[in-house]
UspA domain-containing protein
Amino acid sequence: MAEERKTMKVMVAIDESDGSFYALKWTLDNLFMSALASPDLNQDAGMITIVHVQQPFQPYIYPAGPVIYATTTVLESVRKAQEENTAAILSRALQICKDKPVKVETLILEGEPKDLICQAAEQMHVDFLVVGSRGLSKIKRAFLGSVSDYCAHHAKCPILIVKPPKESRE
C-alpha cells in the first residue's frame, strides 16, 4: 500500500521589503525542493498562502491645533494607492512562484500585521509560517517592534524567520 504524502501548507508574509521576497524565494527553493526530484512532476509539492497586511489608514490628522479630518477625496485617493501597492506586491510574489511545483493563493488583510499574520496562520492550520527579517538591531526592535520577533513568540505553529544574505544586510 502506497503511503499518501500530506500536502505541506506554508504561509509566507509579504510586504514591500526585499527581505520578504527573499524569504519567499528561499521557501520555494528549500522547503519544496524534494518535489522537483519527485517522479510525479504533475503533483504539487504543497500549498503556499502569500499573505499581505495593509496598515489601516487613519482618516484624521493631528496638527498643533484641533483635529483635522481627511476629505472623502483624500480617503479615496489613499485607499486606491494602497490597493495599487498591494496589487504590485502580490503580482511580484506570484511571478516568483510562477514555475514552481506549488499551489499558490493570496490573502489580503487590513490591520496590525503582527497580530493578523499570527491569527491567519492559526485559523488556516498552516504547517509553517515564514517571515523575512529586516535585520533590525536589538535597540531598533525594542522601539519599533518587529513582526518576525512578535510572530516567533505568538504564532501557534512552527515559524521560520529567513534572514537576507549577508551582502544585503547593513
Notes: The chain has a mean pLDDT of 81. The chain is about 40% helix and 20% strand.
